[in-house]
Each structure stands twice: as structure tokens, then as C-alpha cells.
Structure to design on (299 residues):
């Protein structure tokens, strides 16, 4: 009932332990708190909070228009709803190194288990679009050093994302990944890898966990979990998938309403009211109310 029974520091420690074990961590993207609860119920190991999803949810493109406050607020709403560790997209850290430090502490307060900071110029753009620009190496390293120095819980995972593959090629991405690890990154997110061999090359170059982004309609093929595990990937995210599925279903429903005037033919495609009430633990809230407010008003 209400929120997660696990405090944030325990989720972070568990996340670190799972990564240290070598077990692959699957983290579908939650587009709201309720979907995070569904991800947990279906047996996944973590929840991802996508900057692209947050932007889209606000009706905005993913070009750096969201704020640190908006990201921290949504992160808190999602992280507190599940016992799973949450990994959040912190874009470029929302400014200069001191802004990065403040972002880290705000997200730590929000209860996430980890966050990633990227090396794009600010404002950034979606990692699978053309025309990206990256900052020079020293600027990228300052962001990661600031992030690592700012955290108060040593188990908060500081992940460095590099977008340089699309700009300067794989060797540049490997060189930058190594430098980011030396600067204090606990994990590496190599964005927009072309194939499995490129993921494997990054894996061999660094001794920290690496993440694979399996976003649809992007630069990377949609590899299976087993394929990614075989080349040494430690974390897999599907950042926008649930939002895309939900919006596709919503569009089909609206089309049916326009054409038929009723949604009766689509009842089989909907989550039943009983399933929704079970997911949000309606019964638990009712039992709590009954146990607390168990008095009668007599006249």
C-alpha cells in the first residue's frame, strides 16, 4: 500500500550487488508511476526513467527543454512506487559542473539508484537523431567528476553516457569511455552502437558495467537479451517502449470512437477494472481505512 517499503539506500545497495554478480539487469522504461509497478510485477530487475519520455509526456521534443526540477519530481514519483532500483536520464546535468552536482543531489533525494550524465552539448538532442554535437573531453570529464564528488550515498551509481560514436566513430567512443571511467564513472552508456561487435568492443575496453539502449526506430538493431548478455552487456533499457505501446493503443481507441461511436468492440484490449484495482492495491487501502476509521456516529 502507498509506496515502496524499501528505503532508497537499500535499493542502491541491491542494485550494486546485482551488477557485481554479473547478472544482466533488464530495465524497461516507466512512463508513469503505475507502469513502474507493472514492470515490477512482471518480474523485471529495474526501472528506467527516460528523459525522452518525460519530454514527450509534456508534449515537448527531446531537445533539452525539460528542467532539473521536472526530472527530479517525476523520478521521485516513480522511484517511490516500486521496490526496484530506478535509473534516470539526467541529460547533460542541466548546466555547468556545479549544476551537475546539484542535479546529482536532487536525484539522490528523489530516491533513484543511479543516473547517467551525457557528453552532448547543452541543449542536447535525442541520442538516436542525426546532427548531434559532443563537448570536448575535458568538459565531459568535469561533469563526471562533479557528479561523483556530489553524491552522499557511495552506492548511488554514476553512469557516463557518451554520444561520440555517431560523431567521431567507435575508436573515439572507446577512448572517451576509458577516460570517463578514470574520471569516476561507475558504468558506461555507449549510445547508438551500430552492432553487437561494437558493444563487445566497449565491453572489452572498460572494467565497469555497460548499458545497451534498445530503443525502437533508432540507430541500433533490436538485439535480444540473450544476444546482449553474450557480448557482456550488464544493463538493458527499453526507454520509450511502454509509452509507444500505450500511445498506439490510445490512438486506435480514439479512431474506433470516431468511427463507431462506442468502445465496446475494444473491451478485450483494455486492462480490466479488476486488474487495475489489483495493481494499485485497492483492497489494501480499503482494509487500512476500515482498521483506522472503525467508529460509528450515533444520534
Amino acid at each position: 500500500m502507498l509506496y515502496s517499503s524499501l528505503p532508497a539506500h537499500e535499493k542502491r545497495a541491491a542494485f550494486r550487488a546485482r551488477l557485481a554478480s554479473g547478472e544482466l539487469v533488464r530495465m524497461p522504461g516507466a512512463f508513469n508511476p503505475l507502469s513502474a509497478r507493472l514492470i515490477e510485477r512482471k518480474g523485471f530487475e529495474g526501472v528506467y526513467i527516460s528523459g525522452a519520455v518525460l519530454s514527450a509526456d509534456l508534449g515537448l521534443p527531446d531537445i533539452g527543454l525539460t528542467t532539473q526540477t521536472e526530472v527530479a519530481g517525476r523520478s521521485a514519483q516513480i522511484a517511490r512506487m516500486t521496490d526496484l532500483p530506478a535509473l534516470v536520464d539526467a541529460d547533460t546535468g542541466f548546466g555547468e559542473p556545479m549544476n551537475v552536482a546539484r542535479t546529482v543531489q536532487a536525484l539522490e533525494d528523489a530516491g533513484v539508484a543511479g543516473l547517467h550524465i551525457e557528453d552532448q552539448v547543452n541543449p542536447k538532442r535525442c541520442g538516436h537523431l542525426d546532427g548531434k554535437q559532443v563537448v570536448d573531453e575535458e568538459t565531459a570529464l568535469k561533469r563526471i567528476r562533479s557528479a561523483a564528488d556530489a553524491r552522499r550515498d557511495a552506492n548511488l551509481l554514476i553512469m557516463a553516457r557518451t554520444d561520440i560514436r555517431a560523431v567521431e566513430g567507435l575508436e573515439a567512443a572507446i577512448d572517451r569511455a576509458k577516460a570517463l571511467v578514470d574520471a569516476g564513472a561507475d558504468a558506461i552508456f555507449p549510445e547508438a552502437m551500430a552492432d553487437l561487435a561494437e558493444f563487445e568492443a566497449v565491453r572489452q575496453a572498460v572494467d565497469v558495467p555497460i548499458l545497451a539502449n534498445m530503443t525502437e526506430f533508432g540507430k541500433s538493431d533490436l538485439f535480444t537479451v540473450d544476444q546482449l548478455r553474450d557480448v557482456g552487456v550488464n544493463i538493458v533499457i527499453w526507454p520509450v517502449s511502454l509509452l509507444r505501446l500505450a500511445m498506439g493503443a490510445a490512438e486506435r481507441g480514439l479512431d474506433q470512437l470516431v468511427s463507431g461511436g462506442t468502445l465496446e468492440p475494444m473491451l478485450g484490449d483494455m486492462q480490466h477494472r479488476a486488474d487495475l484495482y489489483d495493481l494499485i492495491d485497492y483492497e489494501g487501502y480499503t482494509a487500512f481505512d476500515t482498521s483506522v476509521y472503525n467508529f460509528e456516529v450515533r444520534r
About this structure: The chain has a mean pLDDT of 94. The first helix runs from residue 8 to 21.
